[in-house]
Specification:
The protein is of the alpha/beta class. The protein contains 6 helices and 17 strands. The chain has one domain: Metallo-beta-lactamase, Chain A (4-Layer Sandwich), CATH 3.60.15. The strands form 3 sheets. The protein has a 7-stranded mixed β-sheet with strand order 7-5-4-3-2-1-17. Strand 8 and strand 9 form a beta hairpin. Helix 5 crosses helix 6.
Amino acid sequence: MKITCLCEDTLYSDKYYSEHGLSLYIETNDTKILFDMGISDVFIKNAQLHGIDLSKTDIAVLSHGHYDHGGGMRNFMNINSKAKIYVSEYAFGNQFNATGKYIGLDKELESSEQIVKAGEYLRISDTIEIFSSNNRELFYPIDSAGLSAECDGVVAPDTFRHEQYLKITENGKTYLISGCSHRGIINIVNWFEPDILVGGFHFMKQEPIADNPMLCDAAEKLDSVRTEYYTCHCTGEEQYRILRTKMKKELNYIASGQVINI
């Protein structure tokens, strides 16, 4: 499987573009998948630099309803009017940051024929599945990190019911792609036990000190399973470095413009 990071907070090389956001172009044996679309058209610019024609993308998947993952959706629709975009049924809800600012998606796009609401589970093909996991047991409580969402007319700490995960089974391995892992990276790893996990861990608001108990505990638990990790975006650069020094297994970081073959 080949994954090209089309958008991330850091640069792999100065020839590429970056912004606070995420977009991954995933090439499986038979499907071209765009996972998230960043904030703007950065993912398109980087795709062009890599010679990737996004108009030939087969499907797109949106990890959750935040602007830094779905802000570029209209730009994608403008160059690819055929690919279905799989979103959570709650993706177009009202999401807010710690100051109460709206950080959700462009609601005008919800009625597009390209939008498909995946529900709790959707099998796209024999090898591609989407899970929301809202009904799964939480091994560890969800940390809203100051983010909130409107549910039944009430704004409360976000439970991230609008988050979903892409599972790909190929060549005897299971791959799990997660945008921010808002529902808890340890929960997610325990739910799916993938061979390889790619995505953000959402630790960037954790104090980046060596004895931070959250980071120490996460490092230990991530080490305790067989999963191989490629992280990015909301993990935070300093937090990543702390995790990497504490973990026995390799923790990889992927940046904007980088290509990995896994």
